[in-house]
Amino acid sequence: MSDTMKENNNTITIDGREIPFKEGQTIMDAALAADIYIPHLCHRPGLKPHGSCKLCTVEVNGRSASACTLPAAKGQEISNNTEALNGVRKTITQMLFVEGNHFCPACEKTGDCTLQAVAYHLDMLDGHFPQFYPRREVDASHPGIVLDRDRCIMCELCVRTSREMDGKDVFAITGRGIDAKLIVNSASGKLADTDITTDDLAAHICPVGAILIKEHGYEVPIGRRTFDLHTIAEPGVEPVILRKGKHADEH
Amino acid sequence: MSTRKIRVATTSLAGCFGCHMSFLDIDERIVGLIEHVEFSRSPINDIKHCHPDCDIGLIEGGLCNAENVHVLKEFRESCKIIIAVGACAINGGVPAMRNHFTLKECLEEAYLDGIGVENPMIPNDVELPLLLSKVHPIHEVVHVDYYLPGCPPPADAFMKVLTDLLEGKEPSLPKEILHFD
Fold it and tell me: For the whole prediction, is pTM greater than 0.90?
């Protein structure tokens, strides 16, 4: 059998649709190549998968796994866009919203924010859980970049981008659990004293409004931004029912 | 079937009245609406208390003081359906950005140490509602039946929700007009 033929036989099935994959691809890689949307926040093609946000959890032959880290393997039967998985994804998204300070109307990133777009995709209406309202430090020391930790979701996209793409090591997460926070690589702990520049990819990778380029926040007006005009997946045709949802923890 | 009009009450708690302004952006459609709806307690007619048998309560704003909590409870007791309208009612919104700080710090900044403050003094008149130490979304205090996100929700969203309810349908919005901003 030739290599090409072998490759042609390499398929996985996502929600009943058979798609090809190449050796070395993850389920996420194969899905993205086939235009199948698996919700995700901490994944970006080209960066080493992180597997931390868990939004891309799918069921592979009946077992839960992160699509961004699990290698695609011949014959996998994968469930992705199911009510149960989207329900869990909505809960994860609600937890991300309540544990930070995500006030969309007061954020420059609104309309271009992946967290917000995922929330729209999952028909999230409220945070459900009690708000944490944590007090986190804002670092506006850098002339071109502002670091607003209120909105950081610890996805480490900036950490990996700085290391893998920019060849620097500007960002890191320190602490664990609720004490985790984004820190920068300088003796003073301030962004201005690191070697980051506005030309770095890491300055532009943030999926939320935690790392922003100064003085450019409102060049595109609210209402004309990416997720004002497009959904993060395929355009949904189903209307969003506004009833307060019943959570698994409610009777 | 009773022929009385559907009673709608509205209030702005820790909000900016922006949601009410957006609601009034339904413009002349309000003429058609009042064929089917009568307004009970609302800032648009200055009625001070809810009719005990209201159908729909639209709540703008979160809870920042004791009076907000009192008003919210009156709405919950009087209205069959409570709708949390706008970002502040749903997650505290911009007023909740004071939650990063203690109430003492906020009052001192506003009334004692802030730039341009004259005759520095923290107001403490007995008529003033007691501030809560944190701003809260309304679902942390009462049961909410529906959420209408947005800052503010557009006039079309208000019309859609009220029209759905008047027609006895489950309120819903097309995905395109569901926004948090």
Answer: yes
